[in-house]
Design brief:
Elements: H1 10-20, E1 42-46, E2 70-74, E3 86-88, E4 93-100, E5 104-114, E6 120-131, H2 140-149, E7 156-158, E8 163-167, E9 178-184, E10 191-192, E11 239-245, E12 250-255, E13 260-266, E14 274-276, E15 282-287, E16 292-297, E17 302-307, E18 311-316, E19 323-329, E20 332-339, E21 344-353, E22 358-363, E23 369-374, E24 380-385, E25 390-396, E26 402-407, E27 413-418, E28 427-433, E29 438-446, E30 453-454, E31 460-464, E32 472-476, E33 481-486, E34 496-500, E35 505-509, E36 514-519, E37 524-529, E38 543-547
Antiparallel strand pairs: 1-2, 2-9, 3-8, 4-5, 4-7, 5-6, 6-8, 6-9, 9-10, 11-12, 11-38, 12-13, 14-15, 15-16, 16-17, 18-19, 19-20, 20-21, 22-23, 23-24, 24-25, 26-27, 27-28, 28-29, 30-31, 31-32, 32-33, 34-35, 35-36, 36-37
Length: 550
């Protein structure tokens, strides 16, 4: 039940293994994986075994590190036959289907996330009875060549939770199960215990007893799960909210737990669009009046800057390796691809001609694309392919005077807010299929909205009633109907929103520099000031959130 090593890269695999013996293993580098199934009847038959000396024979170079993956079954541990179940993507990425004598039918996914050494993460789903017809098939030789050249153009994009196939018995007759692997750097090298990169420790049974059993999981054969316990995941990082304060040339830092401004980041000019890296190590702010992009190194708050004309909004890929900055000049609109480590422009992507105005850009959580919304009467949303760094498509969103673009957590849905031409009417929002980059639906009959967020289950959109009551409006995305209007205590055109579903809260900012902490279930709120200087028509407030810098 253990995937073997093909002829590809045996020497490289051995070399990596030997090198790894001299390195300290880094746990908890990127916790982005969820379970590769949704069936509650699925359990672990066998986990990653550390220093295992049991009845398995391990092909070199794995040596004593046997079974470098997790076997999932639907049934009773240690007592086949087991039942089939749907296998789903543990994270978004680009996928292919293939076959090997050891893995049988399998699906392989390349993810945007990378480890601390810069190696790309891959996940493998083996022993399938069949794979989804929407996923391209490639031979092993083609797979290895694609990975070696980082060319995934013939692979199929999949969202988190997308159906990949059915657990089966291919290359494992009589033992119907899913063998799940996480790899770093390429097929089938540098395997990593998926426990290290699951986004909660509950995805692996705990506590663990070396050579014994795990709580809640029957274990007829001591050592079925582990012979050495896996590492303990660190606690979730404390979050921070960053808010541009354009009238005071600074960014306010808010602790969402205490509803207090705990720090301030001074800048040389008024900030407009801001973005925070996923690891919280740096923040980027567009300074349009100065024609610059500022990088704030955290936590020391040192600032480095680059010149960039006509910039208005900025987005950072989840990997932190590339940044996208929108530009509007007299000749037209474009997006500059910037290396955030050196603040140098890697490429310029032209979008539209003279007269067009960009309002916002946001990168999908998958890191595979970014959406650009336009202001004015332009109804389009531009799609940037972040692998090729080129314009991929333009979507007619059928609304205009756009503001924010918000993606769902699995990158399959995008919602675009519209402020409308004349407050308080003609605003609304559009829903876009973010997998196929096509228009789904629009609500353009309600008041203007600046800002939007989407619930994790994709059933709700949250938008501030900017041109109306100042309430937080909740829409049912299945019907585009208003299902709730929650008071925020803000009456001066709230124009930015953050959603924290894990705590059941939303945070909004209005033009007076007041922030509202809204409890969604209790429908209550607490307001507190960010600044004594009002908006004053200078620049809109913008917000971002990320982990507290270490």
């Amino acid at each position: 039940m253990n995937g073997g090593i093909t002829r590809f890269g045996i020497f490289i695999a051995l070399l990596l293994f030997l090198i790894s013996m001299f390195e300290t293993k880094g746990y908890g580098q990127s916790h982005f994986l969820t379970l590769p199934f949704s069936d509650p009847g699925v359990v672990i038959q066998q986990g990653w075994l550390y220093n295992f000396n049991g009845p398995f024979s391990c092909p070199l170079p794995e040596g004593t590190r046997c079974h470098r993956g997790i076997d999932y079954i639907k049934g009773t541990v240690g007592q086949p036959p087991w039942l089939p179940f749907d296998v789903r993507a543990a994270a978004p990425g680009k996928a292919l289907a293939s076959y090997s004598t050891s893995y049988g039918n399998f699906v392989y996914i390349a993810h945007d996330e990378r480890d601390n050494s810069g190696l790309m993460y891959f996940t493998l789903y083996a022993h399938l009875s069949e794979h989804a017809s929407s996923i391209s098939f490639r031979t092993l030789d083609q797979l290895e060549r694609d990975v070696a050249t980082q060319d995934f153009s013939k692979w199929s994009m999949v969202a988190r939770g997308a159906l990949l196939g059915k657990a089966g018995e291919s290359a494992s007759p009589g033992l119907l199960h899913l063998h799940f692997e996480a790899q770093r750097g390429g097929y089938p090298l540098n395997k990593t215990d998926p426990y290290d990169i699951y986004n909660t420790r509950n995805f692996y049974p705990a506590p663990c007893v070396p050579g014994g059993s795990a709580a809640g999981v029957p274990q007829p054969d001591p050592g079925v799960l582990w012979t050495q316990c896996p590492p303990t995941l660190p606690s979730a990082p404390v979050s921070r909210i960053y808010v541009s304060v354009p009238a005071e040339n600074r960014i306010a830092v808010v602790d969402p737990g205490s509803d207090q401004v705990i720090d301030s980041i001074p800048l040389s000019s008024a900030p407009q669009g801001i973005a925070i890296s996923r690891d919280g190590s740096f923040l980027l702010a567009v300074l349009p009046n100065a024609g610059q992009l500022a990088k704030v190194h955290l936590p020391d708050k040192t600032v480095t800057q680059m010149n960039i004309t006509g910039a208005s909004a900025v987005a950072i890929l989840p990997s932190g390796q590339k940044t996208y900055v929108t530009q509007t000049t007299a000749t037209g609109t474009s997006v500059s691809v910037v290396d955030p480590s050196t603040l140098t422009v890697l490429k310029s992507i032209p979008l539209a001609g003279a007269g067009s105005v960009i309002d916002n850009i946001n990168a999908a959580p998958s890191g595979l694309k970014a959406y650009v919304s336009f202001g004015g009467i332009d109804t389009t949303v531009a799609v940037i392919d972040t692998a090729l760094d080129q314009l991929k498509a333009s979507i007619n969103a059928q609304t205009y005077y756009h503001d924010e673009v918000a993606f769902s957590a699995d990158s399959s849905l995008a919602v675009v807010s519209s402020r409308g031409a004349n407050c308080p009417t003609n605003g609304g929002f559009s829903q876009l299929d973010a997998v196929n980059d096509v228009f789904l639906s629009a609500d353009n009959l309600t008041s203007g909205k600046i800002g939007v967020k989407v619930s994790a289950d994709k059933t709700r959109a949250y938008l501030p009633d900017t041109c109306g009551t100042g309430n937080l409006l909740v829409f049912d995305l299945a019907t585009n109907t208003l299902v709730d209007s929650i008071p925020t205590g803000l009456t001066n055109e709230p124009s930015a929103i953050l959603l924290f579903e894990n705590t059941g809260k939303a945070f909004l900012v209005d033009e007076t520099g007041t922030m509202s902490d809204v409890n969604l279930s209790a429908r209550s709120h607490l307001t507190f000031p960010l600044s004594t200087a009002p908006f004053g028509g200078i620049l809109p407030w913008t917000v971002a959130s990320g982990p507290a810098p270490q």
